[in-house]
Amino acid sequence: MRQDRTGEGLLCGEVMTMSGPEPGGQDAERETHVLRARIARELIDAVRDLPAASVPEALCRVCVSLVPDVSGLSLSVLGPVEGTGVVLCASDEVAAQLAEIQYTLGEGPGIDAARLRAPVFAADLTRAPDARRWPLFSGQAAKTGAKAVFSVPLEGAAGALGTLDLYREAAGPLDDGHVRTALLVADALTLAVTALDHASADSGGVVTWLQGAESGREEIHQATGMLMVRLGVSAEEALVRLRARAFAQSSTSLAIARAIISGSMDIGHE
Fold this sequence. Notes:
The chain has helices at about 25-45, 55-65, 95-105, 110-115, 130-135, 135-145, 175-195, 210-230, 235-250, 255-260, and strands at about 70-80, 85-90, 120, 150-155, 160-170. By secondary structure, the chain is an alpha+beta fold.
């Protein structure tokens, strides 16, 4: 059984549909409305009067408290090239590593969630079908201590803006209530990211944290361009080579990009 936005069932490792409340479910719809309002209120309270640079971490902290059945989470925005992105915030080191691993390898629940514009849940990365679906990511995720990953896209008007990626140290699906909460949290974060992304420079620096994330994205873009010139390859192949080096060295795409830009690493004609 697949899961909709109200949390009615789930086949782990598959894409979830994004339909609304079922006909006649007025009580469920009312409960969802109350929960949505509570989530919005807690997010607003968490960032009220904070300097812009502190907003991402505050958002992550409150989101973890809203979905207590997970071990941690990260919030990412997509880059200009498909399969790339940058982590805006992470609740802990494992969550940050999981996001970076996906962008380095170009595979994982978050990559698929952004591409399909639908939630993708992997309840057990140590066994099929999840381990078979993302063989490289599953192996690396296990090394970080994560057994399950749940990814929800942040839906913009023209496509996914990024993803909310949650993980658990123990295998197993989220229960219906926590699935519904995760979907509503992603909705609220979409509004927050969109508002920040479109804020003007006169808004008190509210987008400085997004600008900081953009610099990381630009470093990967710059390094990819350098590899295109150095190797005479397309942008897609240059990005693949950058990712391959990151994977081979158990590093991240961003770290390799910075090394290429600084001249401390030369991938050369590999």
